[in-house]
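Notebook p. 47: complex prediction with guanosine-5'-monophosphate.
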Amino acid sequence: MSDKTLFQKICDKEIPATLVHEDELCVAFRDISPQAPQHLLIIPRKAIPRIDRADETDAALLAHLLLTAAKVARDEGFAESGYRLVINNGPDGGETVPHLHVHLLGGRQLQWPPG
Ligand code: 5GP
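Predicted complex, structure tokens below:
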């Protein structure tokens, strides 16, 4: 039985997703249950379970995820109106998929503080 995470299967195109960006380090695709008009996920191809499990050797990769999120927002046309980047870590953070992912949310006024 495969022990790949759900998001590894999306990276490997074993599970369909609406991809908006891919390169050698990461993939960006639309969230299946969007919480805003624009809701995308940026994930590393490397299977890092969560930000708490990243280390110094991942520094360039983490920077790439953030820069890719900003590029996707520009490419999708909502960078100017604004957006929010979110990383949920562990149970209290609301993490449900144990593969590091950056949420990119936009297309509406987001509230603060988050729930
Ligand atoms: P988390 O709660 O772990 O921070 O975020 C996981 C996100 O993955 C959720 O927003 C959820 O809607 C999304 N998600 C879960 N399964 C799938 C899937 O099969 N395809 C896509 N595109 N998104 C998924």
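Notes: Residues 6-106 form a domain with the HIT family, subunit A fold (CATH 3.30.428.10). The chain has one domain: 6-106.
Next step: compare against the earlier run before touching the bench.
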